[in-house]
């Protein structure tokens, strides 16, 4: 969430945005109840209109072995 929304705002979203897709609770509450992080993230993306191309996070360079 930090990559998409910034460190400060992502904390606010996680604790205050109620996500209907995961039972009408916040992201923090959903995670505490055992909802899969990916399911929570996708629910946040839907509520915040994150475009599909940004839902996997920012690209990371390939690590050389």
TrEMBL record:
Source organism per UniProt: Paeniglutamicibacter sulfureus
InterPro entries: DUF3046
Pfam family membership, one: DUF3046
Protein name, per record: DUF3046 domain-containing protein
